[in-house]
Amino acid sequence: MALPEPSIPASAWIRASIRVALENEHSRFGALARELLFLRQCRKEAAFTSKVARALDKRVLNTSSHLSQKPQRSQTLFILAGGASVNELTPLNLETMAGQTSIGINFWPIHPFVPNALSTETDNTPGGANLSNTFLSEEINSQRVRKAPPDIMVLRPPWPPNKSRLYSLSSEYDAKTWIYGRANVITKSPANLAPDLGRIIKRAISCELPSSVLPDNGSSVVRLTFWGLIQGYAEIVWVGVDQDSGGYFWTEAPVPHKYRTAAELFPRETGQPHSTSSAEDRPFSNDFFLRELANAVKSVTKQRIYVAHNRSSLSDSIPVYRWENSTQEVGSLATTAGSAPQPKNPAGTFALAFRMRSLFIRDCVALAAGRWLSRVQRSGPLGPRISILIPTLNTRVGLLANRAIPSILAQSEQNFEVLIVTDFYSEGVKALVDSLDSRFTYLTNPRIPGHLKDADVTSRWCSAAAPALNLALARAHGEFIARLDDDDSWFPDHLARSISKLEAEGSEFVSSKCLLPDGKESPDYFIDDEYYGTVPKTPHPPAPIGSPITWVYRSSLKRLRYNSWSWKKPHNRPVDIDLSIRIWRAGVSLSYLDDVGAQIGTRGESSEWGLSAFVQENCPTEEKPFN
Q1: Has residue 21 been placed in a domain?
Q2: Total number of domains constituting the chain
Q3: How far apart are CA 62 and CA 264, in angstroms?
Q4: What's the pLDDT score for residue 405?
Q5: pTM, to two decimals
Q6: Which helix (H) or strand (E) holds 105?
Q7: C-alpha to C-alpha distances, 105 to 79, 110, 178, 447, nearest whole angstrom
Q8: Fewer Cβ close by (within 10 Å): the C or N end of the chain?
Protein backbone atom coordinates (compact mmCIF):
# COMPACT_ATOMS: atom_id res chain seq x y z
CA MET A 1 0.00 0.00 0.00
CA ALA A 2 1.42 3.39 -1.02
CA LEU A 3 2.18 5.82 1.76
CA PRO A 4 0.32 9.14 1.63
CA GLU A 5 2.44 12.11 0.64
CA PRO A 6 3.16 14.40 3.59
CA SER A 7 0.94 17.42 3.55
CA ILE A 8 2.45 20.89 3.07
CA PRO A 9 1.31 23.47 5.62
CA ALA A 10 -0.88 26.11 4.07
CA SER A 11 1.34 28.89 5.39
CA ALA A 12 4.42 27.39 3.72
CA TRP A 13 2.53 26.97 0.46
CA ILE A 14 1.38 30.59 0.57
CA ARG A 15 4.92 31.85 1.27
CA ALA A 16 6.32 29.77 -1.58
CA SER A 17 3.66 31.09 -3.94
CA ILE A 18 4.37 34.68 -2.92
CA ARG A 19 8.11 34.14 -3.44
CA VAL A 20 7.50 32.71 -6.93
CA ALA A 21 5.36 35.71 -7.86
CA LEU A 22 7.87 38.07 -6.29
CA GLU A 23 10.80 36.59 -8.21
CA ASN A 24 9.07 36.42 -11.59
CA GLU A 25 11.66 38.17 -13.73
CA HIS A 26 9.09 38.98 -16.42
CA SER A 27 6.57 40.56 -14.05
CA ARG A 28 6.51 44.31 -13.48
CA PHE A 29 4.41 43.62 -10.40
CA GLY A 30 7.17 41.46 -8.95
CA ALA A 31 9.81 44.14 -9.58
CA LEU A 32 7.61 46.84 -8.03
CA ALA A 33 6.83 44.65 -5.03
CA ARG A 34 10.52 43.95 -4.40
CA GLU A 35 11.30 47.66 -4.61
CA LEU A 36 8.53 48.57 -2.16
CA LEU A 37 9.62 45.85 0.26
CA PHE A 38 13.21 47.13 0.09
CA LEU A 39 12.06 50.68 0.87
CA ARG A 40 9.99 49.38 3.80
CA GLN A 41 13.04 47.51 5.10
CA CYS A 42 15.13 50.71 4.81
CA ARG A 43 12.61 52.73 6.84
CA LYS A 44 12.49 50.10 9.59
CA GLU A 45 16.29 49.90 9.62
CA ALA A 46 16.59 53.69 9.91
CA ALA A 47 14.36 53.70 13.00
CA PHE A 48 16.30 50.82 14.53
CA THR A 49 19.65 52.49 13.78
CA SER A 50 18.53 55.65 15.59
CA LYS A 51 17.55 53.54 18.59
CA VAL A 52 20.95 51.81 18.66
CA ALA A 53 22.80 55.13 18.26
CA ARG A 54 20.96 56.63 21.24
CA ALA A 55 21.82 53.61 23.35
CA LEU A 56 25.50 53.93 22.40
CA ASP A 57 25.46 57.72 22.81
CA LYS A 58 26.67 58.16 19.24
CA ARG A 59 25.43 60.22 16.31
CA VAL A 60 23.63 58.76 13.31
CA LEU A 61 25.45 58.97 9.97
CA ASN A 62 24.00 61.22 7.29
CA THR A 63 25.08 59.59 4.03
CA SER A 64 24.64 62.91 2.19
CA SER A 65 27.13 64.78 4.41
CA HIS A 66 30.81 64.95 3.51
CA LEU A 67 33.61 63.58 5.67
CA SER A 68 35.39 66.10 7.88
CA GLN A 69 38.71 65.22 6.20
CA LYS A 70 37.54 65.14 2.56
CA PRO A 71 40.10 66.77 0.23
CA GLN A 72 38.81 69.62 -1.88
CA ARG A 73 37.70 68.76 -5.42
CA SER A 74 38.05 65.03 -4.75
CA GLN A 75 36.39 63.00 -7.50
CA THR A 76 37.66 59.53 -6.60
CA LEU A 77 36.87 57.32 -3.61
CA PHE A 78 39.34 54.59 -2.67
CA ILE A 79 37.80 51.79 -0.59
CA LEU A 80 40.69 50.08 1.20
CA ALA A 81 40.22 46.40 2.04
CA GLY A 82 42.65 43.78 3.36
CA GLY A 83 43.65 41.70 0.32
CA ALA A 84 47.32 40.96 -0.38
CA SER A 85 47.27 43.11 -3.53
CA VAL A 86 47.52 46.10 -1.16
CA ASN A 87 51.23 45.28 -1.05
CA GLU A 88 51.44 46.16 -4.76
CA LEU A 89 50.66 49.82 -4.02
CA THR A 90 53.61 52.04 -4.86
CA PRO A 91 54.49 55.33 -3.14
CA LEU A 92 53.01 57.25 -6.07
CA ASN A 93 49.79 55.22 -5.78
CA LEU A 94 49.61 56.24 -2.13
CA GLU A 95 50.31 59.83 -3.13
CA THR A 96 47.36 59.67 -5.51
CA MET A 97 45.14 58.27 -2.75
CA ALA A 98 46.26 61.03 -0.39
CA GLY A 99 44.96 63.64 -2.84
CA GLN A 100 41.55 61.96 -3.09
CA THR A 101 39.08 60.44 -0.57
CA SER A 102 39.77 57.08 1.05
CA ILE A 103 38.04 54.81 3.57
CA GLY A 104 39.84 51.91 5.26
CA ILE A 105 37.91 48.79 6.25
CA ASN A 106 38.26 46.85 9.53
CA PHE A 107 41.99 46.10 9.95
CA TRP A 108 43.26 48.88 7.70
CA PRO A 109 44.57 50.99 10.65
CA ILE A 110 47.68 48.77 10.79
CA HIS A 111 48.72 50.04 7.33
CA PRO A 112 51.04 53.09 7.28
CA PHE A 113 48.68 55.02 4.99
CA VAL A 114 46.10 56.97 7.02
CA PRO A 115 42.76 57.34 5.15
CA ASN A 116 40.08 59.99 5.58
CA ALA A 117 37.74 57.55 7.33
CA LEU A 118 37.68 54.07 8.87
CA SER A 119 34.76 51.65 8.56
CA THR A 120 34.27 49.19 11.39
CA GLU A 121 31.85 46.53 12.57
CA THR A 122 31.08 45.32 16.07
CA ASP A 123 28.81 42.89 17.88
CA ASN A 124 26.79 42.85 21.09
CA THR A 125 28.55 39.99 22.86
CA PRO A 126 28.39 40.53 26.65
CA GLY A 127 31.62 41.51 28.37
CA GLY A 128 34.47 43.86 27.60
CA ALA A 129 36.49 44.56 24.47
CA ASN A 130 37.93 41.61 22.60
CA LEU A 131 41.52 41.25 21.41
CA SER A 132 40.71 42.70 17.98
CA ASN A 133 39.11 45.85 19.42
CA THR A 134 41.95 46.42 21.87
CA PHE A 135 44.65 46.05 19.24
CA LEU A 136 42.93 48.27 16.67
CA SER A 137 42.02 50.87 19.30
CA GLU A 138 45.72 51.22 20.08
CA GLU A 139 46.52 51.68 16.39
CA ILE A 140 43.82 54.34 15.88
CA ASN A 141 44.90 56.16 19.06
CA SER A 142 48.54 56.18 17.95
CA GLN A 143 50.24 59.48 17.20
CA ARG A 144 50.71 58.34 13.59
CA VAL A 145 46.94 58.20 12.98
CA ARG A 146 45.99 61.12 15.22
CA LYS A 147 48.02 63.58 13.13
CA ALA A 148 44.91 63.74 10.93
CA PRO A 149 42.27 61.73 12.81
CA PRO A 150 39.90 59.95 10.41
CA ASP A 151 36.13 59.78 10.76
CA ILE A 152 34.87 56.48 12.20
CA MET A 153 31.87 54.84 10.49
CA VAL A 154 30.40 52.02 12.61
CA LEU A 155 27.84 49.53 11.33
CA ARG A 156 25.12 49.34 13.97
CA PRO A 157 25.39 46.21 16.14
CA PRO A 158 22.42 43.97 17.04
CA TRP A 159 20.15 44.81 19.95
CA PRO A 160 20.91 45.22 22.79
CA PRO A 161 24.16 47.01 21.89
CA ASN A 162 27.21 46.66 24.14
CA LYS A 163 29.17 49.92 24.30
CA SER A 164 32.24 48.06 25.55
CA ARG A 165 32.53 46.34 22.16
CA LEU A 166 33.13 49.64 20.37
CA TYR A 167 36.68 50.88 19.83
CA SER A 168 38.03 52.61 22.94
CA LEU A 169 39.15 55.87 21.35
CA SER A 170 40.43 59.20 22.61
CA SER A 171 37.95 62.06 23.09
CA GLU A 172 38.93 63.75 19.80
CA TYR A 173 37.08 60.96 17.98
CA ASP A 174 33.78 61.54 19.83
CA ALA A 175 32.53 64.07 17.29
CA LYS A 176 33.86 61.99 14.39
CA THR A 177 32.16 58.65 15.14
CA TRP A 178 28.94 57.74 13.33
CA ILE A 179 26.49 54.83 13.43
CA TYR A 180 24.72 53.66 10.27
CA GLY A 181 22.38 50.84 9.23
CA ARG A 182 22.09 48.45 6.31
CA ALA A 183 19.41 46.86 4.14
CA ASN A 184 19.85 43.76 1.98
CA VAL A 185 18.30 43.42 -1.44
CA ILE A 186 15.00 41.55 -1.45
CA THR A 187 15.56 39.28 -4.44
CA LYS A 188 17.27 35.92 -4.10
CA SER A 189 17.28 35.31 -7.84
CA PRO A 190 20.51 36.01 -9.77
CA ALA A 191 18.42 36.98 -12.80
CA ASN A 192 16.74 39.80 -10.87
CA LEU A 193 19.81 41.14 -9.10
CA ALA A 194 21.12 43.45 -11.85
CA PRO A 195 17.80 45.22 -12.59
CA ASP A 196 17.00 45.50 -8.87
CA LEU A 197 20.41 47.01 -8.20
CA GLY A 198 19.83 49.49 -11.00
CA ARG A 199 16.62 50.70 -9.36
CA ILE A 200 18.24 50.86 -5.92
CA ILE A 201 21.20 52.84 -7.30
CA LYS A 202 18.88 55.37 -8.91
CA ARG A 203 17.02 55.88 -5.62
CA ALA A 204 20.29 56.07 -3.66
CA ILE A 205 21.91 58.77 -5.81
CA SER A 206 18.60 60.69 -5.82
CA CYS A 207 18.68 60.62 -1.98
CA GLU A 208 15.36 58.75 -1.85
CA LEU A 209 16.64 56.25 0.74
CA PRO A 210 16.82 57.01 4.48
CA SER A 211 20.04 58.96 5.07
CA SER A 212 21.32 56.57 7.76
CA VAL A 213 20.93 53.33 5.77
CA LEU A 214 23.13 51.84 3.05
CA PRO A 215 22.22 48.93 0.73
CA ASP A 216 24.14 45.77 1.58
CA ASN A 217 25.05 42.19 0.79
CA GLY A 218 26.82 41.47 4.06
CA SER A 219 29.95 43.30 2.90
CA SER A 220 31.59 46.59 3.91
CA VAL A 221 32.75 47.09 0.31
CA VAL A 222 29.14 47.05 -0.92
CA ARG A 223 27.93 49.49 1.73
CA LEU A 224 30.79 51.92 1.20
CA THR A 225 30.36 51.74 -2.56
CA PHE A 226 26.78 52.91 -2.15
CA TRP A 227 28.01 55.65 0.18
CA GLY A 228 30.40 56.78 -2.57
CA LEU A 229 27.62 56.73 -5.16
CA ILE A 230 25.41 58.88 -2.91
CA GLN A 231 28.32 61.27 -2.36
CA GLY A 232 28.69 61.65 -6.12
CA TYR A 233 32.23 60.37 -6.65
CA ALA A 234 32.93 59.91 -10.35
CA GLU A 235 35.25 56.95 -9.68
CA ILE A 236 35.18 54.33 -6.95
CA VAL A 237 38.29 52.17 -6.68
CA TRP A 238 38.31 48.89 -4.74
CA VAL A 239 41.78 48.48 -3.25
CA GLY A 240 42.68 45.07 -1.80
CA VAL A 241 39.28 43.62 -2.77
CA ASP A 242 40.92 40.48 -4.11
CA GLN A 243 38.13 37.94 -3.52
CA ASP A 244 40.58 35.08 -3.73
CA SER A 245 42.16 32.48 -1.50
CA GLY A 246 45.31 34.52 -0.89
CA GLY A 247 46.34 35.99 2.43
CA TYR A 248 45.82 39.44 3.87
CA PHE A 249 48.28 42.21 3.15
CA TRP A 250 49.67 41.77 6.67
CA THR A 251 50.11 37.97 6.36
CA GLU A 252 51.72 37.78 2.91
CA ALA A 253 55.23 36.34 3.18
CA PRO A 254 57.73 37.64 3.91
CA VAL A 255 55.82 39.39 6.70
CA PRO A 256 57.36 42.85 7.35
CA HIS A 257 58.25 43.72 10.92
CA LYS A 258 55.47 46.32 11.11
CA TYR A 259 52.83 43.62 10.47
CA ARG A 260 54.16 40.78 12.60
CA THR A 261 51.89 41.41 15.57
CA ALA A 262 48.83 41.64 13.34
CA ALA A 263 49.84 38.46 11.49
CA GLU A 264 50.08 36.59 14.78
CA LEU A 265 46.77 37.91 16.09
CA PHE A 266 44.79 37.64 12.85
CA PRO A 267 46.36 34.96 10.63
CA ARG A 268 44.94 33.67 7.40
CA GLU A 269 46.32 30.67 5.59
CA THR A 270 46.88 30.93 1.85
CA GLY A 271 44.30 28.79 0.08
CA GLN A 272 41.55 29.58 2.57
CA PRO A 273 38.52 31.04 0.72
CA HIS A 274 37.45 34.55 1.66
CA SER A 275 34.47 34.56 4.01
CA THR A 276 32.40 36.74 1.65
CA SER A 277 32.93 34.34 -1.27
CA SER A 278 30.21 32.12 0.15
CA ALA A 279 26.47 32.80 -0.04
CA GLU A 280 25.72 30.82 3.14
CA ASP A 281 25.17 33.87 5.37
CA ARG A 282 24.31 36.49 2.73
CA PRO A 283 21.87 36.73 -0.20
CA PHE A 284 24.61 36.29 -2.85
CA SER A 285 28.30 35.51 -2.84
CA ASN A 286 30.30 38.71 -2.91
CA ASP A 287 32.17 37.53 -6.02
CA PHE A 288 28.90 37.57 -7.96
CA PHE A 289 27.33 40.57 -6.22
CA LEU A 290 30.30 42.91 -6.73
CA ARG A 291 30.46 42.14 -10.44
CA GLU A 292 26.74 42.78 -10.81
CA LEU A 293 27.03 45.99 -8.79
CA ALA A 294 29.84 47.33 -11.00
CA ASN A 295 27.84 46.54 -14.13
CA ALA A 296 24.68 48.11 -12.71
CA VAL A 297 26.55 51.31 -11.81
CA LYS A 298 27.93 51.51 -15.33
CA SER A 299 24.50 50.97 -16.91
CA VAL A 300 22.51 53.56 -14.91
CA THR A 301 25.05 56.26 -14.02
CA LYS A 302 28.12 58.02 -15.38
CA GLN A 303 30.03 56.86 -12.31
CA ARG A 304 32.50 53.99 -12.65
CA ILE A 305 33.93 51.26 -10.43
CA TYR A 306 37.48 49.92 -10.74
CA VAL A 307 39.77 47.46 -8.99
CA ALA A 308 43.19 48.79 -8.02
CA HIS A 309 45.29 45.92 -9.32
CA ASN A 310 45.04 42.96 -11.66
CA ARG A 311 45.80 40.62 -8.75
CA SER A 312 42.13 40.99 -7.81
CA SER A 313 40.06 38.08 -9.13
CA LEU A 314 37.44 40.68 -10.08
CA SER A 315 39.75 42.14 -12.74
CA ASP A 316 38.39 39.62 -15.24
CA SER A 317 35.18 41.67 -15.49
CA ILE A 318 35.88 44.99 -13.70
CA PRO A 319 38.49 47.33 -15.25
CA VAL A 320 41.77 47.97 -13.47
CA TYR A 321 42.17 51.58 -12.38
CA ARG A 322 44.58 53.69 -14.40
CA TRP A 323 46.33 55.50 -11.61
CA GLU A 324 46.36 59.26 -12.09
CA ASN A 325 49.71 59.41 -10.35
CA SER A 326 51.02 55.91 -10.49
CA THR A 327 54.03 53.79 -11.16
CA GLN A 328 53.48 50.31 -12.49
CA GLU A 329 56.93 48.94 -11.85
CA VAL A 330 58.54 46.57 -14.32
CA GLY A 331 62.01 46.14 -12.95
CA SER A 332 63.47 49.58 -12.59
CA LEU A 333 61.21 50.79 -15.40
CA ALA A 334 58.26 52.56 -13.79
CA THR A 335 55.56 54.17 -15.88
CA THR A 336 53.72 57.18 -14.59
CA ALA A 337 50.29 57.57 -16.09
CA GLY A 338 50.03 60.90 -14.28
CA SER A 339 52.09 63.26 -12.18
CA ALA A 340 52.40 64.51 -8.68
CA PRO A 341 49.93 67.36 -8.17
CA GLN A 342 51.40 70.40 -9.91
CA PRO A 343 50.30 74.00 -9.36
CA LYS A 344 47.96 75.44 -11.97
CA ASN A 345 50.38 77.62 -13.84
CA PRO A 346 49.46 78.34 -17.47
CA ALA A 347 52.81 79.99 -18.13
CA GLY A 348 54.66 77.00 -16.69
CA THR A 349 52.52 74.59 -18.70
CA PHE A 350 53.25 76.49 -21.90
CA ALA A 351 56.97 76.57 -21.11
CA LEU A 352 57.01 72.81 -20.51
CA ALA A 353 55.12 72.13 -23.74
CA PHE A 354 57.58 74.33 -25.64
CA ARG A 355 60.51 72.53 -24.01
CA MET A 356 59.10 69.08 -24.95
CA ARG A 357 58.48 70.18 -28.55
CA SER A 358 61.98 71.58 -28.81
CA LEU A 359 63.34 68.33 -27.40
CA PHE A 360 61.54 66.33 -30.11
CA ILE A 361 63.10 68.49 -32.84
CA ARG A 362 66.51 68.15 -31.20
CA ASP A 363 66.08 64.36 -31.00
CA CYS A 364 65.34 64.12 -34.72
CA VAL A 365 68.40 66.23 -35.55
CA ALA A 366 70.60 64.27 -33.11
CA LEU A 367 69.45 60.96 -34.56
CA ALA A 368 70.16 62.08 -38.13
CA ALA A 369 73.59 63.34 -37.09
CA GLY A 370 74.35 60.18 -35.16
CA ARG A 371 73.44 57.95 -38.10
CA TRP A 372 75.59 60.02 -40.46
CA LEU A 373 78.57 59.99 -38.09
CA SER A 374 78.30 56.25 -37.55
CA ARG A 375 78.62 55.72 -41.32
CA VAL A 376 81.52 58.15 -41.63
CA GLN A 377 83.45 56.75 -38.68
CA ARG A 378 82.84 53.10 -39.53
CA SER A 379 86.34 52.79 -41.02
CA GLY A 380 87.99 54.68 -38.15
CA PRO A 381 89.98 53.23 -35.22
CA LEU A 382 88.22 50.49 -33.32
CA GLY A 383 87.19 51.11 -29.72
CA PRO A 384 85.39 48.80 -27.31
CA ARG A 385 82.41 47.03 -28.80
CA ILE A 386 80.06 47.95 -25.94
CA SER A 387 79.93 50.85 -23.51
CA ILE A 388 78.14 49.90 -20.28
CA LEU A 389 76.66 52.75 -18.20
CA ILE A 390 76.11 52.34 -14.44
CA PRO A 391 74.85 55.24 -12.30
CA THR A 392 75.40 54.61 -8.60
CA LEU A 393 75.72 56.19 -5.16
CA ASN A 394 78.34 56.09 -2.42
CA THR A 395 75.96 54.03 -0.26
CA ARG A 396 75.67 51.25 -2.85
CA VAL A 397 79.29 50.16 -3.23
CA GLY A 398 78.46 46.74 -1.82
CA LEU A 399 75.59 46.21 -4.26
CA LEU A 400 77.76 47.33 -7.16
CA ALA A 401 80.58 44.99 -6.17
CA ASN A 402 78.38 41.97 -5.50
CA ARG A 403 75.73 42.18 -8.22
CA ALA A 404 76.31 44.41 -11.24
CA ILE A 405 80.07 43.99 -11.68
CA PRO A 406 80.22 40.16 -11.29
CA SER A 407 77.45 39.77 -13.87
CA ILE A 408 79.38 42.01 -16.29
CA LEU A 409 82.58 40.03 -15.82
CA ALA A 410 80.62 36.82 -16.46
CA GLN A 411 79.39 37.97 -19.89
CA SER A 412 80.28 35.84 -22.89
CA GLU A 413 80.97 39.12 -24.74
CA GLN A 414 84.03 40.66 -23.07
CA ASN A 415 84.93 43.48 -25.46
CA PHE A 416 83.47 46.31 -23.38
CA GLU A 417 84.16 49.41 -21.33
CA VAL A 418 82.27 50.17 -18.11
CA LEU A 419 81.53 53.77 -17.10
CA ILE A 420 80.52 54.02 -13.44
CA VAL A 421 79.15 57.44 -12.46
CA THR A 422 78.29 59.13 -9.16
CA ASP A 423 76.83 62.59 -8.68
CA PHE A 424 79.56 63.46 -6.15
CA TYR A 425 83.02 62.07 -5.53
CA SER A 426 82.93 58.75 -3.68
CA GLU A 427 86.10 57.31 -2.15
CA GLY A 428 84.43 53.89 -1.91
CA VAL A 429 83.36 53.73 -5.55
CA LYS A 430 86.77 55.08 -6.68
CA ALA A 431 88.58 52.39 -4.68
CA LEU A 432 86.35 49.69 -6.14
CA VAL A 433 86.93 50.83 -9.72
CA ASP A 434 90.71 51.09 -9.12
CA SER A 435 90.72 47.45 -7.98
CA LEU A 436 89.29 46.34 -11.34
CA ASP A 437 90.95 46.15 -14.77
CA SER A 438 91.43 49.02 -17.19
CA ARG A 439 88.04 48.47 -18.86
CA PHE A 440 86.40 50.12 -15.83
CA THR A 441 86.33 53.92 -15.56
CA TYR A 442 85.06 56.10 -12.73
CA LEU A 443 83.28 59.37 -13.60
CA THR A 444 81.89 61.92 -11.18
CA ASN A 445 80.51 65.43 -10.70
CA PRO A 446 78.06 65.77 -13.59
CA ARG A 447 76.32 69.14 -13.78
CA ILE A 448 73.12 68.81 -11.75
CA PRO A 449 70.39 71.32 -12.72
CA GLY A 450 68.99 73.44 -9.90
CA HIS A 451 65.42 72.34 -10.62
CA LEU A 452 66.37 68.74 -9.75
CA LYS A 453 67.87 69.76 -6.42
CA ASP A 454 64.55 71.29 -5.35
CA ALA A 455 62.34 68.36 -6.49
CA ASP A 456 60.51 66.13 -4.00
CA VAL A 457 61.61 62.56 -3.39
CA THR A 458 59.41 60.87 -6.01
CA SER A 459 60.27 63.51 -8.62
CA ARG A 460 63.97 63.07 -7.90
CA TRP A 461 63.58 59.34 -8.43
CA CYS A 462 62.01 60.05 -11.82
CA SER A 463 64.89 62.17 -13.12
CA ALA A 464 67.85 62.09 -10.71
CA ALA A 465 69.89 59.66 -12.82
CA ALA A 466 69.74 61.86 -15.93
CA PRO A 467 72.89 63.99 -15.29
CA ALA A 468 75.02 60.92 -14.47
CA LEU A 469 73.79 58.95 -17.48
CA ASN A 470 74.33 61.89 -19.82
CA LEU A 471 77.92 62.30 -18.59
CA ALA A 472 78.51 58.60 -19.27
CA LEU A 473 76.97 58.84 -22.75
CA ALA A 474 79.25 61.78 -23.59
CA ARG A 475 82.31 59.70 -22.61
CA ALA A 476 81.18 56.42 -24.22
CA HIS A 477 83.27 55.08 -27.14
CA GLY A 478 81.58 51.76 -27.83
CA GLU A 479 79.77 50.67 -30.97
CA PHE A 480 76.83 49.75 -28.74
CA ILE A 481 75.45 51.22 -25.51
CA ALA A 482 74.07 49.15 -22.62
CA ARG A 483 72.65 50.21 -19.27
CA LEU A 484 72.75 48.43 -15.89
CA ASP A 485 71.78 49.49 -12.37
CA ASP A 486 74.07 48.78 -9.41
CA ASP A 487 71.61 46.42 -7.66
CA ASP A 488 70.67 44.40 -10.77
CA SER A 489 72.47 41.77 -12.84
CA TRP A 490 72.62 40.29 -16.34
CA PHE A 491 72.53 36.67 -17.42
CA PRO A 492 75.82 35.59 -19.08
CA ASP A 493 74.63 35.74 -22.72
CA HIS A 494 72.63 38.96 -22.45
CA LEU A 495 75.03 41.25 -24.32
CA ALA A 496 75.95 38.69 -26.97
CA ARG A 497 72.35 37.75 -27.71
CA SER A 498 71.23 41.39 -27.82
CA ILE A 499 73.94 42.37 -30.29
CA SER A 500 73.18 39.33 -32.44
CA LYS A 501 69.53 40.40 -32.54
CA LEU A 502 70.47 43.94 -33.61
CA GLU A 503 72.78 42.71 -36.34
CA ALA A 504 70.40 40.03 -37.59
CA GLU A 505 67.46 42.44 -37.95
CA GLY A 506 69.46 45.57 -38.79
CA SER A 507 67.65 47.42 -36.00
CA GLU A 508 69.04 50.15 -33.76
CA PHE A 509 67.54 49.34 -30.35
CA VAL A 510 66.76 46.06 -28.60
CA SER A 511 65.37 45.15 -25.19
CA SER A 512 64.17 41.93 -23.57
CA LYS A 513 62.37 40.40 -20.63
CA CYS A 514 63.77 40.40 -17.11
CA LEU A 515 63.03 38.58 -13.87
CA LEU A 516 61.35 40.60 -11.12
CA PRO A 517 62.53 40.20 -7.50
CA ASP A 518 59.73 37.70 -6.85
CA GLY A 519 61.00 35.48 -9.67
CA LYS A 520 58.21 36.30 -12.13
CA GLU A 521 58.91 37.44 -15.67
CA SER A 522 58.24 41.08 -16.44
CA PRO A 523 55.18 41.58 -18.67
CA ASP A 524 55.44 42.78 -22.26
CA TYR A 525 54.25 46.34 -22.87
CA PHE A 526 54.01 47.85 -26.32
CA ILE A 527 55.02 51.48 -26.46
CA ASP A 528 51.46 52.53 -27.36
CA ASP A 529 49.76 50.43 -24.64
CA GLU A 530 47.46 52.06 -22.09
CA TYR A 531 50.23 51.22 -19.62
CA TYR A 532 52.03 54.32 -20.90
CA GLY A 533 49.04 56.63 -20.54
CA THR A 534 49.08 59.50 -23.04
CA VAL A 535 51.68 58.95 -25.76
CA PRO A 536 51.93 61.40 -28.71
CA LYS A 537 50.83 60.07 -32.08
CA THR A 538 53.54 58.91 -34.47
CA PRO A 539 53.61 57.09 -37.80
CA HIS A 540 56.16 54.57 -36.55
CA PRO A 541 54.95 51.05 -35.71
CA PRO A 542 54.84 50.25 -31.99
CA ALA A 543 57.08 47.63 -30.39
CA PRO A 544 57.51 46.14 -26.92
CA ILE A 545 59.92 47.92 -24.60
CA GLY A 546 61.60 45.96 -21.80
CA SER A 547 63.20 47.17 -18.59
CA PRO A 548 66.03 49.72 -19.13
CA ILE A 549 68.56 47.27 -17.67
CA THR A 550 67.94 45.12 -20.77
CA TRP A 551 68.44 47.93 -23.29
CA VAL A 552 71.24 47.63 -25.86
CA TYR A 553 71.38 50.16 -28.70
CA ARG A 554 73.74 51.45 -31.35
CA SER A 555 76.01 54.38 -30.57
CA SER A 556 74.24 56.39 -33.27
CA LEU A 557 71.52 56.96 -30.65
CA LYS A 558 73.78 58.21 -27.86
CA ARG A 559 73.14 61.85 -28.75
CA LEU A 560 69.54 61.33 -27.63
CA ARG A 561 70.22 62.30 -24.04
CA TYR A 562 68.23 61.69 -20.86
CA ASN A 563 65.80 64.49 -20.02
CA SER A 564 66.36 65.95 -16.55
CA TRP A 565 63.05 67.83 -16.90
CA SER A 566 61.01 64.63 -17.33
CA TRP A 567 59.73 64.80 -13.74
CA LYS A 568 57.77 67.95 -14.61
CA LYS A 569 55.76 66.21 -17.34
CA PRO A 570 52.10 65.32 -16.70
CA HIS A 571 52.67 61.77 -18.04
CA ASN A 572 55.50 59.20 -18.22
CA ARG A 573 57.79 61.09 -15.89
CA PRO A 574 60.74 58.67 -15.28
CA VAL A 575 63.72 59.39 -17.53
CA ASP A 576 63.85 55.83 -18.88
CA ILE A 577 60.27 55.92 -20.11
CA ASP A 578 60.66 59.46 -21.40
CA LEU A 579 63.71 58.40 -23.43
CA SER A 580 62.09 55.20 -24.77
CA ILE A 581 59.06 57.14 -26.04
CA ARG A 582 61.28 59.83 -27.59
CA ILE A 583 63.40 57.17 -29.31
CA TRP A 584 60.26 55.63 -30.80
CA ARG A 585 58.84 59.01 -31.88
CA ALA A 586 62.11 59.95 -33.56
CA GLY A 587 61.81 56.87 -35.81
CA VAL A 588 64.36 54.47 -34.30
CA SER A 589 63.90 50.87 -35.46
CA LEU A 590 63.10 48.70 -32.43
CA SER A 591 63.62 44.98 -31.78
CA TYR A 592 62.59 42.79 -28.88
CA LEU A 593 64.08 39.56 -27.51
CA ASP A 594 61.42 37.30 -26.08
CA ASP A 595 63.97 35.89 -23.62
CA VAL A 596 64.99 36.76 -20.07
CA GLY A 597 68.18 38.80 -20.09
CA ALA A 598 68.43 40.29 -16.61
CA GLN A 599 67.48 39.93 -12.97
CA ILE A 600 66.15 42.84 -10.94
CA GLY A 601 67.41 42.85 -7.37
CA THR A 602 66.11 44.36 -4.15
CA ARG A 603 67.97 47.13 -2.35
CA GLY A 604 70.38 45.36 0.02
CA GLU A 605 68.64 43.61 2.91
CA SER A 606 65.40 45.43 2.12
CA SER A 607 62.61 43.68 0.23
CA GLU A 608 61.93 46.93 -1.67
CA TRP A 609 63.09 47.82 -5.19
CA GLY A 610 62.63 50.58 -7.73
CA LEU A 611 60.80 53.64 -6.45
CA SER A 612 59.83 51.98 -3.17
CA ALA A 613 63.49 51.40 -2.33
CA PHE A 614 64.44 54.95 -3.31
CA VAL A 615 61.74 56.41 -1.06
CA GLN A 616 62.79 54.11 1.78
CA GLU A 617 66.40 55.32 1.43
CA ASN A 618 65.48 58.99 1.25
CA CYS A 619 62.58 59.09 3.75
CA PRO A 620 63.54 57.48 7.08
CA THR A 621 59.95 57.77 8.34
CA GLU A 622 57.78 55.46 6.32
CA GLU A 623 54.79 57.77 6.19
CA LYS A 624 56.76 60.94 5.43
CA PRO A 625 55.87 61.28 1.72
CA PHE A 626 52.15 60.78 2.32
CA ASN A 627 51.11 62.38 5.64
Answers
A1: no
A2: 2
A3: 37
A4: 95
A5: 0.55
A6: strand 101-105
A7: 7, 11, 15, 48
A8: N
